[in-house]
Amino acid sequence: MTIIRHFIAILLLPFVMTVLVPRWLMDAYAQSDTRWIDGSLISTLGHLAGILILLLGVGLFIWCVELFASIGRGTLAPWDPTRHLVVVGPYRFVRNPMISAVLIVLIGESLYLGSRVLALWAVTFFLINAIYFRLLEEPGLDRRFGEEYRRYKEAVPRWIPRPTPWKNA
Fold first, then answer.
1. Do 54 and 102 form a contact (C-beta atoms < 8 A)?
2. Residue 15: CB partners within 8 Å, gap ≥ 6?
3. Using an 8 Å Cβ cutoff, are 115 and 109 in contact?
4. What is the pLDDT of residues 65-122, one digit of tens each?
5. d(C-alpha 142, C-alpha 72), whole Å
């Protein structure tokens, strides 16, 4: 049942943001969007950079989902949240590595395709999440995890990773 819970959460949230919305945007704006000129050195470098960045984002995302399942005992979905605060792995450097992972995937997609529309979607996705986390997610974490979360929040930045891992002292 746990695998199904995670699959549904992934299908409804990051899959929509990284696959369905970009597909819709590319279909809607394909005529006016900038693309790489096929066969050029810049095109090849853009494709390679996009693939590497996308793979980095997918790897980080998988790591975060695994931590939510194994330590947090929940999913990434707001309707099925973690039961324990996750403060290990990438969470020692930044409070929102899962959103960072989705953002990295979007940046990789925009680079791979040479798409200004997808780059704008990545910025929009970040801004929506920046507002959501400040207004809803963080107050909810504060209510659920109390002092443990407040200590973590004080020590670990929301978006820009720490240079050294936080040690939960």
1. no
2. none
3. yes
4. 899 888 988 777 777 778 999 999 999 999 999 999 999 999 999 999 889 999 999 9
5. 15
